[in-house]
Amino acid sequence: MFNSFRLERRRKKQLAELHFAKKMIVAADVAISKSEIFGSISTEDVQREALAMFRLKVGWQVAYMALARQLKMRGLIVEEITVEKEQGK
């Protein structure tokens, strides 16, 4: 009985974390799309979008991870300070 309750609680936590990650990816993607006009983006842009879209207040580390993931998905090389296009693209 207790074991199934523990599994159910763990599953709910995993689903909540997955849902949060999806929201952060969407917020980062929207921030990137909006910034393509100006050519620069920061973690503050991602934080602002997360707050506006989902009422989520996130730290810069979470915003950075979401931003870096989405930039990598778009074929860019992400380092701590710089972002560059991949060679040959």
Written description of the protein model:
By secondary structure, the protein is mainly α. The model has no long low-confidence stretch (mean pLDDT 87). It has helices at residues 2-35, 43-54, 60-73; strands at 76-78, 83-85. Helix content is 67%, strand content 7%. The chain contains three helices and two strands, in the order H-H-H-E-E. It is elongated and about 50 Å long. A hairpin with a 4-residue loop joins strand 1 and strand 2.
Which helices and strands occur, and which strands form pairs?
Layout: H1 2-35, H2 43-54, H3 60-73, E1 76-78, E2 83-85
Antiparallel strand pairs: 1-2
Helix pairs in contact: 1-2, 1-3, 2-3
Offer a few descriptive terms.
single chain, 89 residues, mainly alpha, two-stranded antiparallel ribbon, 67% helix
Number of helices: 3
Number of strands: 2
Largest sheet: 2 strands, antiparallel
Shape: elongated
Short note summarizing the structure:
The chain is mostly helical and 89 residues long. It has helices spanning 2-35, 43-54, 60-73; strands at 76-78, 83-85.
